[in-house]
Amino acid sequence: MLPQVRSAETADVYFLRSRDALRYLGLDPKVGMSVFPGRAGVCCGIRQVVELLSEARFDGELWALQEGDTAESGEAALEIYGKYSAFGVYETAILGILASCSGWATAAAEVVGAGAPVPVVSFGARHVHPNVSAIMDYCAIVGGCVTCSTPLGATLAGLAPSGTMPHAYVLIVGDTVQAAEGFDQAMDDTVPRVVLVDTFQDEAVESVRVAQALGDRLQGIRLDTPSERGGVTPSLVCEVRARLDLAGFRHVQIAVSGGVTPERIIRFREAQAPVDMYGVGSHITAALPIDYTGDIREIDGRPVSKRGRIPGMQRHGRLQQIL
Amino acid sequence: MLPQVRSAETADVYFLRSRDALRYLGLDPKVGMSVFPGRAGVCCGIRQVVELLSEARFDGELWALQEGDTAESGEAALEIYGKYSAFGVYETAILGILASCSGWATAAAEVVGAGAPVPVVSFGARHVHPNVSAIMDYCAIVGGCVTCSTPLGATLAGLAPSGTMPHAYVLIVGDTVQAAEGFDQAMDDTVPRVVLVDTFQDEAVESVRVAQALGDRLQGIRLDTPSERGGVTPSLVCEVRARLDLAGFRHVQIAVSGGVTPERIIRFREAQAPVDMYGVGSHITAALPIDYTGDIREIDGRPVSKRGRIPGMQRHGRLQQIL
Amino acid sequence: MLPQVRSAETADVYFLRSRDALRYLGLDPKVGMSVFPGRAGVCCGIRQVVELLSEARFDGELWALQEGDTAESGEAALEIYGKYSAFGVYETAILGILASCSGWATAAAEVVGAGAPVPVVSFGARHVHPNVSAIMDYCAIVGGCVTCSTPLGATLAGLAPSGTMPHAYVLIVGDTVQAAEGFDQAMDDTVPRVVLVDTFQDEAVESVRVAQALGDRLQGIRLDTPSERGGVTPSLVCEVRARLDLAGFRHVQIAVSGGVTPERIIRFREAQAPVDMYGVGSHITAALPIDYTGDIREIDGRPVSKRGRIPGMQRHGRLQQIL
Amino acid sequence: MLPQVRSAETADVYFLRSRDALRYLGLDPKVGMSVFPGRAGVCCGIRQVVELLSEARFDGELWALQEGDTAESGEAALEIYGKYSAFGVYETAILGILASCSGWATAAAEVVGAGAPVPVVSFGARHVHPNVSAIMDYCAIVGGCVTCSTPLGATLAGLAPSGTMPHAYVLIVGDTVQAAEGFDQAMDDTVPRVVLVDTFQDEAVESVRVAQALGDRLQGIRLDTPSERGGVTPSLVCEVRARLDLAGFRHVQIAVSGGVTPERIIRFREAQAPVDMYGVGSHITAALPIDYTGDIREIDGRPVSKRGRIPGMQRHGRLQQIL
Amino acid sequence: MLPQVRSAETADVYFLRSRDALRYLGLDPKVGMSVFPGRAGVCCGIRQVVELLSEARFDGELWALQEGDTAESGEAALEIYGKYSAFGVYETAILGILASCSGWATAAAEVVGAGAPVPVVSFGARHVHPNVSAIMDYCAIVGGCVTCSTPLGATLAGLAPSGTMPHAYVLIVGDTVQAAEGFDQAMDDTVPRVVLVDTFQDEAVESVRVAQALGDRLQGIRLDTPSERGGVTPSLVCEVRARLDLAGFRHVQIAVSGGVTPERIIRFREAQAPVDMYGVGSHITAALPIDYTGDIREIDGRPVSKRGRIPGMQRHGRLQQIL
Amino acid sequence: MLPQVRSAETADVYFLRSRDALRYLGLDPKVGMSVFPGRAGVCCGIRQVVELLSEARFDGELWALQEGDTAESGEAALEIYGKYSAFGVYETAILGILASCSGWATAAAEVVGAGAPVPVVSFGARHVHPNVSAIMDYCAIVGGCVTCSTPLGATLAGLAPSGTMPHAYVLIVGDTVQAAEGFDQAMDDTVPRVVLVDTFQDEAVESVRVAQALGDRLQGIRLDTPSERGGVTPSLVCEVRARLDLAGFRHVQIAVSGGVTPERIIRFREAQAPVDMYGVGSHITAALPIDYTGDIREIDGRPVSKRGRIPGMQRHGRLQQIL
Question: Which residues of E have a CB under 8 Å from any CB of D?
Answer without folding.
Answer: 200-202, 205, 228-231, 233, 235-236, 239
